[in-house]
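lol ok so funny story. i was supposed to be doing the assay writeup but got distracted and ended up predicting the structure for this chain instead. priorities right. anyway since i did it might as well share w the group, maybe its usefull for someone
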Amino acid sequence: MALTLAKIEEIAPDQGSVDAARKLLKPALWPTVADDGEGLLWGECQGSGSLPYRVCLSEADLGYKCTCPSRKFPCKHTLALMWMRVQNQPFARAERPDWVADWISRRRPGAAARPTPASEPGAAKASLAEAPVEIEAPADPKAEARAAAQRERLKAEREASILAGLDELDRWLADQLDRGLAAFQGVAAEQCKTLARRLVDAKAHGLAARVEQLPTAMFGMPEASRGAFLIEKLGEFHLIAEAYRRQDALSPNLAADVRLAMGWTMTRDALFADPLALHHRARWMVLATVNEVQPDKLRRLETWLARLGEGEGPGFALLIDFVPVSVGSVGNTYSPGECLEAELVFYPSTAPLRAVIAEQNGGAVKAGDFPVPPEDLAGALVGYDAMLARKPWLGEWPLVLRDAVVASSPAGPVLAAQDGGTALPLRLAQDDDSLLPLAGVTCTAVFGLWDGHFLDLKFAETALGRWIAA
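and the output, tada:
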């Protein structure tokens, strides 16, 4: 089936999709466009999120697949890839990457994806010629000034609301201490839900989420440890509140950490425009992905990267995207074991971790084993303690280490140093036997997320092969 402009117009779901596709016909948005010389095309398109969308297309029957959450078929990314092909834009000749080969192996030959109803016979026909060319309108200084004033007014109102909410937090903490923390466990769910609702009303959404998650986290601890854990977390709430009140006296990066903990966000455009934003170009390996649904009905997609090779700059990066649950099941763009050459831009922080891809050189490819890390378990914990000192509400932090083994203990499974010294308790749900393949096996490289209490094991290299958390 020949790919032509007329065919693209025929299968486009509506004119809006064509208009959106035209905006993507910019080489800078596509770190990768390639073909295998046998009618199979693929590309990676950088959208507004931290991860690019992956598109693949079979020219033989116009079957396609895109990792974006759009409910229109084909989506704007697929249409743009087709459009670039018809316009004879250069496609690199390359071997099929694993994610393309996997799609090909799972689809039935000739099974082109079904178009959306708007593209069925009788629907209004989309036109590539009518897609508007984006022309930047001249700036209106007065309108920009009014918009800036409006933003500042809304920001000031939110700042005042948050400070009022922190006063509520102070009274709530004092009430819990007056009643006694031993009695708190019996009313934790009700008390935390009430405070979280008040903090949401005060527009302190980040702190509200921390409060709401406290009961679940506390009851997930061994009973003997719950009292100390509760004191730690209530102290953390107080510390964040006091730091927010005094943010003018903090360093820019620590102030950014505090504001993020409170619920302030930074757009991708604002991050790229920040002259102090940390840029780091390196070769990265994907060591873990997380795909979970949050209480706010958003699907959280995490991709954990580790830098390959020595050098200055962050050794880890976390890419996060959010997708509404209503769009259906969506998978992560990358999979563990893939490597990519990319420049990342890190959000301001005293412990830089979350990042977005600014530029990617070529596509992600499967690589060999993860190199043996220079640090053992004790050395990795020293690095964690240094980050915790910078950011006391650090939460989960990635650890990568060598020469460790999964072993049993009276309290449950642990990751122990091969020399029998340090050991960390492993987070494992009841009746979860996913760690059995690692029992007693020496791991030359281990990656996990440590929160100061439990290690969530994600990735391990062993003499028997690679283990990846399900």
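The first strand starts at residue 32 and ends at 35. Residues 141-179 form the longest helix (39 residues).
back to the writeup now i swear
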